[in-house]
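tool_call: predict_structure(chain=1)
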Amino acid sequence: MANIMDEYKQKLLTAEQAAQLVKSGDWVQYGEFVQQPLEIDAALAARKDELKDVKIRLVTMTFLPQVCKVDPARESFCMNDWHFSGVSRKLQEADLCNYIPQTYHEGPSFYRRGYDPVDICFQPVTPMNEKGYFNVSTSNSISAAVLEAARIKVLYVNQSAPWCCGGSGEVVHISDVDHIVESQTNHPLLNIPEVVPSETDKKIAEIILGTMRDGDCVQLGIGGMPNAVGAMIAQSDLRDLGVHTEMLVDSFVDMYNAGKLSGKKKQIDKGKMVYTFAMGTQKLYDFLDYNPVCASYPVDYTNDPFIIAQNDNMVCINNAIEVDLYGQVASEASQGRQISGTGGQLDFIFASYRSRGGRGYIALTSTVKGKDGELKSRILPGISPGTIVTVPRSINYYLVTEYGIFNLMGKSTWERAEGIIDLAHPQFRDDLVKAAEKQKIWRRSNKI
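tool_result:
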């Protein structure tokens, strides 16, 4: 222990000293989700006039980086986000942030194959334990790969971070890093309040819940509708559900406390709630701290379709922005504006089909109100110009709106058009039929 503590003291730097390690032209890696090196970011921003073309990557911006605030011309710092957030969207509109397109489970390979060089990483962690190990806490998705790739490895210690059991990739030893920075504020993790589901979200959740069975293995995406499913599961009579998900949110805590999650019927990681990152309220972070029922893994495990599919009866539930009459799903960008990211949606939809008894649901409200207050259909003749397809029509299968559920698999283009128009708001169905006729994907025998 004495040797470990001596090594710890030798590697200790202030945030300002750590920021001095960065040189012009460097690629710098921050953290993921609610684990970010806030004090090092502020210290780096203070060097704005000394640096040029420092390129920074992070995963889901949950704070406003000081490096972006001090450099509106983007001459000193260039920010890039793996998965957009509300902050990222605002920065994008100011031309201060770019998205990194990727299929999430492949992310660690970008670093291991050398596609994404890292000159220096600032990896947020928990305090060191008596064995010399730090824990990456709530965000494990690419951390291990980044630490392997980084030329200079700096840990950012925050005493507020929970110790999250793994899995794999969840710890790093002091002997494997170059420097350590202790947070002076030990700032609490950002609390992301649960999205309150609308009445329409609840209707969709009821439809999905009606298809679920005891022993299903659950993945939930972010948003009001997946939260509604989680809340309904907690109040249902379902039993022995498993968890293999990308994101762990508060509703999983509620399901566990209600006795719905045993994981006994899983084929791999039996009894464990498997995830790659957690984001929610303090309730979730307290639940995770040293809790062996939870298993944190890198994203190339949690989101690998061939790993996911080893669990039977995978039920994967995700949101979308719009869907067209061919079955193409847009969930990340609309008309040139990046809103979210591909994330794990494609991974889990593909995997759920490979899972024996699996079901993958793309759920969306049939309409949305535009900025002008007008009701607009989210089911369209074709994907809007500048909108990015997240799930191609060849992989997508279950679509759900408040008007029902439709399975696209094995269906021709006219069968798809019929089934998808049935899910649209009645106000827009006639226009969609006309569009389908024009696109030669309609038969008069269809019943609408």
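agent: The longest helix spans residues 426-438. Proceeding to next step.
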